[in-house]
Amino acid sequence: MFNKFTLAVATIGFAAIGFATSASAAVNIVVNPSFEMGSGVDTAKGNLDTSITGWTTYTRLGLPSTGAYYASTASWDASDGQRSVELNGAMQGGIYQDVILQVGKQYKFSFDYSVDPSGSRLNNPFTASVRSFSNGISYVRPVGHSATNMLYNTFEIVFTATNAANRVSFNSGNAGQFGVVIDAVNLALVPEPATWAMLIAGFGMVGFSMRRRRTALDSVSN
């Protein structure tokens, strides 16, 4: 049977669990982060095409040629789900999405990347950017890489937002038809230290309350 003491401990416990959930499961700001929503799979996309939900594809210098390839597992395996995007279609291109961030707050940005298994290049450079930073990255195809074994790498960085309006973008550094494949994009607010402090305090209160309860029960039984 629940009494007031037990109910108080349960309330504290649920609060601590709530803090843990909000801290560990930060909301991904990116729309359609694994490219699962969209039309025209296994086709190349032209400049300023928006058929991949939430994303816009573009080509180098804004040329009308196709500059990104929207792939399903019929083309190669995805890192997350069934779809991914190559930054090259018929030529060098990329994808972008505009997001709003809180200035001065820390964010964690991550994504998985591999390369088109049909390409012959050993070094595949590209740029991953949010307005607050830009990183040049490259993928060197390892032994065993194939359409069914894409050997994705994961890029991850924590940064402080310096602007409210930001553009998440991926830009190929390869000219021509073959390039880097992107999947599982994540951009989320890093929990404030105060949130973690409240979480730790909440669990501490639960532990202390349970010890007191056990002591009280032991005293009664003796």
Would you kindly provide a written description of the structure presented here, covering whatever features stand out?
There is one protein chain. The protein is of the alpha+beta class. The protein has two domains: 4-22 and 194-221; 28-190, Galactose-binding domain-like (Jelly Rolls, Sandwich). Helix content is 23%, strand content 34%. It contains two helices and eleven strands; from the N terminus they run αβββββββββββα. It has helices at residues 4-24, 193-221; strands at 43-45, 56-59, 68-72, 83-86, 93-100, 106-115, 123-130, 133-140, 153-160, 165-172, 180-189. The strands form two sheets. Strands 1-3-4-11-6-9 form a six-stranded antiparallel sheet, with no helix packed on it. It has a five-stranded antiparallel sheet with strand order 2-5-10-7-8, with no helix packed on it. The two termini are 21 Å apart.
Short synopsis of the structure:
Helix content is 23%, strand content 34%.
User: How can the largest sheet be summarized?
Assistant: 6 strands, antiparallel
For the record, what CATH class of the largest domain applies? Mainly Beta
**Mean residue pLDDT:** 84
Unreliable segments of 5+ consecutive residues? 4-24, 195-199
Give the tally of structural domains: 2
Give me the number of helical elements: 2
Level of helix content? 10-25%
Strand content: 25-35%
Compute the number of strand runs.
11
The strand order across the widest sheet is: 1-3-4-11-6-9
Outline: globular
The CA-CA distance between the termini, in Å, is: 21 Å
Cα Rg? 24 Å
Quaternary state reads: single chain
* N-to-C series of helices and strands: HEEEEEEEEEEEH
Helix and strand composition category? alpha+beta
Q: Under CATH, the topology of the largest domain is which?
A: Jelly Rolls
CATH homology superfamily of the largest domain: Galactose-binding domain-like
The second-level CATH architecture of the largest domain is Sandwich
